[in-house]
Design a protein that fits this description.
Largest sheet: none
Radius of gyration: 24 Å
Mean pLDDT: 80
Number of strands: 0
Distance between the termini: 64 Å
Helix content: 55-70%
Number of helices: 15
Strand content: under 5%
Shape: globular
Order of helices and strands: HHHHHHHHHHHHHHH
């Protein structure tokens, strides 16, 4: 089977003008607001300070202690490009993130063809959902650029290795800066074996080779942890959290999600077998069960690293930044969507009404994805509105504060949480000085949910 992927495939080579147009429209609608936010967010405030002042000492300490070397040098490169081009650093970082997203979409196309041998039509549908994935609203924070680079590189490296191009080792080596990629790499290796044996049935991949490669990845993970341990302020960041209650809660969530995915998959084929008697054996085909196992393996692989450190990869509070924890889940989700779409096409072939309903369902589902994405964008707009009101209050009411507690009134409800360094960034923008001992308490003065708020 051909295992190549051309650069033009990243940009929808081979699709019709109508398909390309729809993809472009979805991309603009889903991603344009990322470029409309005129400030950085969350941990990106620390990065914004470095770019405003030209002082990267704090970033170097942060990223070197955390062993995130790639992230530090990406920012230095962006700073250089920004200085010679005059383009704001946020635009360059967000543009790079979007390019990586298109790269992820292209590599996901390869996975769908290589693992499942799916038609282009169904791959195209899954790629639309990748672009509209609700988690991308957090890309307005510059700190998340390394996530996107590393996810793209792990998929690129995997594909290059399958072509015996050992540049893939370099891509994979860089991508393992994002440690959640380790289990994903093992899952892809196992999926390769399952696909060859049960779906493509060529048996060219030996189980011993698969187990050996998986073992080598595990050894590499341990060696990197020993040779490059985190230290300093960030020595305990993302350490294993083996508290029974947290582990049980997060594991139950993972198991329930997998059960839901498996149930949808199996119930769908069961219903199909009942309605189309000549396809009664569909649900029991080894190919379909192998595809289901691949989905479960990959989804588990992208979830377990977060559960191990006390987090759960799920869509939660759109005011927070935990949606970064579900970035990797876009891979198994896109595979799942492509597979289900393919099977639906098989079952409704020749039935125009069902084909129409299938298209309507896809369109409505995309609208739901985009709507959730905009819920996240709205949360960021609300935060910008609050900060603008706060800056006006600081400038007009108190002037430059002396030592001690300072009370500021604002009629706009703060977001659910303002971190100390975000508050510090606000004061630094107003007064041109950093290192404020500032804290924002989001409780309203009168105990209600409306009115003025205490800012300390």
């Amino acid at each position: 089977m051909k295992t190549d992927l051309k650069a033009s495939d990243y940009f929808l080579a081979g699709y019709s003008i109508r398909e390309k147009t729809l993809y472009i429209i979805i991309s603009i609608v889903a991603l344009a607001p990322i470029f409309m936010m005129n400030r950085d967010f969350w941990d990106g405030r620390i990065i914004a300070y470095a770019f405003r002042t030209g002082n990267f000492t704090g970033l170097k300490t942060w990223f070197f202690e955390s062993r995130w070397f790639l992230q530090y040098y990406v920012y230095r490169a962006i700073h250089f490009l920004s200085s010679i081009s005059g383009v704001d650093y946020k635009v360059l970082i967000r543009l790079l993130a979007i390019l990586c997203l298109f790269g992820i979409s292209g590599e996901a196309k390869y996975l769908m063809k290589y693992l499942f041998n799916l038609p282009e039509k169904n791959i195209y549908i899954a790629r639309l959902f990748i672009i509209a994935y609700p988690a991308w609203h957090v890309l307005v924070s510059s700190v998340l650029i390394s996530y996107m680079i590393c996810i793209w590189l792990i998929l690129l490296g995997y594909r290059l290795l399958l072509r015996s191009n050992y540049l893939g080792l370099i891509a994979i080596g860089i991508s393992l800066h994002f440690k959640s990629n380790f289990p994903l790499l093992i899952a892809l290796i196992l999926s390769d074996y399952i696909s060859h044996k049960y779906i493509r049935k060529d048996n060219v991949i030996k189980l011993s080779r698969t187990l050996l490669l998986s073992l080598l990845v595990c050894i590499l993970f341990v060696v990197i942890g020993i040779v490059l341990p985190t230290y300093g302020l960030y020595s305990n960041y993302n350490q294993f959290d083996l508290r029974p209650v947290a582990m049980a809660y997060n594991t139950i969530y993972l198991v329930l999600f997998i059960i839901s995915m498996v149930s949808i998959y199996l119930l769908f084929f069961a219903a199909s077998s009942i309605s189309l008697k000549h396809r009664i054996g569909t649900i029991f085909r080894k190919e379909d069960l192998a595809a289901l196992i691949i989905l479960v393996v990959i989804y588990s692989a992208v979830s377990i690293p977060y559960i191990a450190v006390g987090k759960v990869p799920r869509m939660g509070d759109f005011n927070d930044w935990t949606h970064r924890n579900v970035f990797l889940t876009v891979i198994p989700l896109s595979l799942f969507i492509a597979l289900i779409s393919f099977k639906i096409n098989q079952l409704i072939k020749g039935h125009n009404l069902f084909d129409f309903l299938h298209r309507i369902t896809i369109g409505l589902s995309l609208l739901v994805f985009v709507a959730l994405l905009y819920v996240g964008y709205q949360a960021k707009v609300n935060q910008l509105a609050f900060e603008s009101s706060l800056i006006d209050s600081i400038s007009s009411e108190i002037g430059k504060p002396a030592e001690g507690s300072v009370h500021i009134s604002t009629s706009i409800k703060p977001p659910s949480r303002i971190r100390w360094y975000e508050a510090n960034s606000i004061f630094q923008r107003v007064f041109g000085e950093a290192s404020w001992m500032v804290e924002i308490d989001s409780r309203p003065l009168d105990g209600s949910m409306e009115g003025e708020y205490d800012i300390y």
